[in-house]
């Protein structure tokens, strides 16, 4: 994960080792190097500018310290700015006062929504919840069956459309799923929705209609981290078309650069809440900005 960025930054820091004091030109050169590292990692330009600006300003203002040498001081600043750009604090799920808590998943086709539905359900079940998965992706062939398979692996129930039960009508299925959860005392409903390969007005309208029908407590935008800074355009389209309360980064296991991960929070203002790091249901965790920053810095 993020190997390219880690290697690049580590080279920048190595070049500062042994320096007794940093001149303004050292700081400028370091800022330039960090800028190039972030651009190579496919981080969105406004994010790069904000990040490098903050590092430069803080590095210039730093007092000569007994405890830290200049290289350590820069690493400390970069670490703190990385934590900030990744969202600062860990943001946890908000549960409804009156169950069921409704969590809706939105994102492009292939982003990993259905897999995530299983991961999230398993994780919640392990914490003593009784989630119900609701299959509202009626677009992609096999999406319903796939959800039933992950539901079984996760050991949770799946509500799928059946004749007379909303076939072909994702909004109807969503409504019926919530009624089922109420009636059978499931405390969490996870609504899987349809995506398309690209941003599409019909898909957005459908997701917005499901949102309106279910009044979700959380809308999680599921984002394939491997798409780099294209993520920014997609995230903005979902923010404007559906709106979301949090982001889930998927496929971090295959993301050597980190551009999407480092851009999405700053661009959308929404916190990254979970990270998916593989196809298996247990390859999933809460997203911790501080741990991710430490990982990037090696
Ligand atoms: P959806 O169309 O958004 O529902 O996407 P899927 O859940 O069907 O996932 C698309 C593909 O990505 C599947 O082959 C998944 O196994 C795979 N996938 C999902 N999450 C991850 C992940 O975190 N890492 C990797 N390597 N593959 C993933």
From TrEMBL:
Protein's name according to its UniProt entry: Signal recognition particle protein
Subcellular location(s) of the protein: Cytoplasm
Residues of the full protein shown: 1 to 298 of 516
Organism listed in the record: Nakamurella antarctica
Described function: Involved in targeting and insertion of nascent membrane proteins into the cytoplasmic membrane. Binds to the hydrophobic signal sequence of the ribosome-nascent chain (RNC) as it emerges from the ribosomes. The SRP-RNC complex is then targeted to the cytoplasmic membrane where it interacts with the SRP receptor FtsY.
Positions that bind GTP: 107-114, 192-196, 250-253
GO BP term (any one): SRP-dependent cotranslational protein targeting to membrane
Keyword entries, A-Z: Cytoplasm, GTP-binding, Hydrolase, Nucleotide-binding, Ribonucleoprotein, RNA-binding, Signal recognition particle
Cellular component annotations (GO), alphabetically ordered: signal recognition particle
Gene name tied to this protein: ffh
Family the entry assigns: Belongs to the GTP-binding SRP family. SRP54 subfamily.
Assembly and binders: Part of the signal recognition particle protein translocation system, which is composed of SRP and FtsY.
Catalytic activity: GTP + H2O = GDP + phosphate + H(+)
UniProt-recorded Gene Ontology molecular function terms: 7S RNA binding; GTP binding; GTPase activity
EC numbers for this chain: 3.6.5.4
Swiss-Prot/TrEMBL domain comment: Composed of three domains: the N-terminal N domain, which is responsible for interactions with the ribosome, the central G domain, which binds GTP, and the C-terminal M domain, which binds the RNA and the signal sequence of the RNC.
Top-level taxon of the source organism: Bacteria
Major localisation: cytoplasm
EC class (word): hydrolase
């Amino acid at each position: 994960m993020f190997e390219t960025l880690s290697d690049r930054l580590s080279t920048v820091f190595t070049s500062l080792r042994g320096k007794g004091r940093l001149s303004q030109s050292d700081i400028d050169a370091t800022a330039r190097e960090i800028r190039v590292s972030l651009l190579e990692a496919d981080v969105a330009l406004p994010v790069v500018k904000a990040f490098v600006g903050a590092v430069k300003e803080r590095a210039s203002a730093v007092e000569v310290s007994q405890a830290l040498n200049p290289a350590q001081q820069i690493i400390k600043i970069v670490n703190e700015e990385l934590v900030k750009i990744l969202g600062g604090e860990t943001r946890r799920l908000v549960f409804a006062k009156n169950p069921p808590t409704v969590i809706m998943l939105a994102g492009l086709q292939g982003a990993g929504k259905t897999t995530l539905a299983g991961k999230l359900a398993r994780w919640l079940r392990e914490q003593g919840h009784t989630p119900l998965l609701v299959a509202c992706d009626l677009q992609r062939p096999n999406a319903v069956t796939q959800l039933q398979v992950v539901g079984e692996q996760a050991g949770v129930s799946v509500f799928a459309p059946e004749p007379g039960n909303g076939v072909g009508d994702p909004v109807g299925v969503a409504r019926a799923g919530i009624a089922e959860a109420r009636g059978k005392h499931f405390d969490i409903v996870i609504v899987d929705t349809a995506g398309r390969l690209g941003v599409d007005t019909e898909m957005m309208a459908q997701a917005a209609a499901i949102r309106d029908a279910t009044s979700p407590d959380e809308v999680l935008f599921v984002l394939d981290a491997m798409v780099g800074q294209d993520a920014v355009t997609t995230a903005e389209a979902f923010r404007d078309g559906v709106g979301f309360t949090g982001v889930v980064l998927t496929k971090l296991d295959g993301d050597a650069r980190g551009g999407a991960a480092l851009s999405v929070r700053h661009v959308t203002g929404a916190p990254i809440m979970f990270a998916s790091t593989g196809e298996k249901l247990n390859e999933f965790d809460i997203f911790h900005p501080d741990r991710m920053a430490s990982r990037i810095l090696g």
